[in-house]
Amino acid sequence: MRRITCALLFLTGFNAFAAGQTETPAETQASFTYQRALITGTVEGVTEFLPVSSTGHMIISDRLMHVPHDKNIMVSDVSDRKGRPISQDRVADDYIVIIQVGAIAAVLVVFFGRVRIVSVGLLRGERAALRLTLALLIAFFPSALLGLFFKEAIGKYLFSVEVVAGALMIGGVIILGAERLLPKIDFNEKEVSEIKLRQALTIGLCQCFALIPGTSRSLSTILGGRLAGLSNPAATEFSFLVGLITLTAASAYKMWSLGPALGQVYPTGPASLGLIVAAVTAFIAVKWMVSFVSRRGMGPFAWYRIVLGGAILLALVLGYKV
Fold it and tell me: pLDDT for 213-248, tens place per residue?
């Protein structure tokens, strides 16, 4: 009898261990403070459209704020649209994508004129609007398909501070090389509206590198535009327009896949504050970015990336936790 009792106790303990740790939805929401939302929203808004990687910066800021991100701790009685359990890690990483809704709103405001013209042109069946829309979709699909097929592997193997630091430094070196080697092209007001489909495909293929945290979607698409023969201002504007589609699709997919869990793991107040702060700061950053890149190019961002990436790697080597 004693042996049977011991065996039952052992199996109970083993099953509890195998099931992993859990936390309640209330505990998950409690870790999502207004301070965290304010910082995350600011980081997202300021960096989303700069060639410095917003995802990389938010991964770093989350680590510095000690945001809970244990993949072995599940939120009890909460599952996504497919019935899968939600981990702490997913709660943190998915919000990094969902908060991009704020940046989307900023681009819609800044480029409202362009978006309105294209939208009206599509309704009227105008050839120029149809062509620009097709170019944007061609630039969007390569990274969208790659991200859809490899989303699990990307989240599992690439969402780390070490990857971010390395990508920041490599991207900085690439910017310096591009600024030195690519020819300067004079801006033409019709560049974006008359972009060739081959140019759009080049930009789309370059955007695939942005799936690596720390690379930067803006950097990939702007450099892709430059490689395709666009001027700095035109490449920057097209990058913003492609971003409008890419960020909308990514955010919508994350929210859809979370399903009912969306309202269970994110508190309405702090989550909404993060979106609003992201929208306001992104609006300021976009207005400044267009002017700055037109005048100075991306060289200054290269040195920022190299210094930041190097500092992070040095901190890791010295044993600091980032």
Answer: 999 999 999 999 999 999 988 999 999 999 999 999
What tokens appear for 291 in the block? 């002017």
Q: How far apart are CA 276 and CA 244, in angstroms?
A: 17
> Under 8 Å CB-to-CB from 15, ≥6 apart: which residues?
none
> Quick check: 5 pLDDT over 80?
no
Q: What letter represents residue 134's amino acid?
A: L
- Spatial neighbors of 91 by CB under 8 A, at least 6 apart, are 28, 68, 75, 265, 266
Residue 159: how many CB atoms within 10 A of its CB?
19
Q: What is the pLDDT of residue 121?
A: 92
The Cα–Cα gap between 245 and 123 comes to 18
pLDDT digits (tens, 9 = 90+) for 268-292: 999 999 999 999 999 999 888 877 8
* pLDDT, tens only, 38-75: 999 999 999 998 999 999 999 999 999 999 989 899 99
Indicate the SS3 state at residue 310.
helix
| Separation in Å, CA 318 to CA 36, 56, 120, 310 | 27, 21, 57, 12
Given a cut of 90, is residue 184 above it in pLDDT? no
Helix axes 112-124, 100-110, angle to 10 degrees: 80
User: What Å distances lie between residue 291 and 122, 171, 227, 237, 295, CA to CA?
Assistant: 29, 22, 20, 11, 6
User: What DSSP character marks residue 21?
Assistant: E
Output the pTM of the full model: 0.86
DSSP per-residue string spanning 31-86: TS-HHHHHHHHHHHHHHTTTTT-HHHHHHHHHHHTT----TTEEEEEEE-TTS-EE
Q: Strand pairing partners for 87? A: 74
Q: Are 73 and 90 in contact, with CB atoms under 8 Å apart?
A: no
Distance set, CA 92 to CA 2, 32, 71 (Å): 46, 9, 10
List the structure tokens of 272: 């909404």
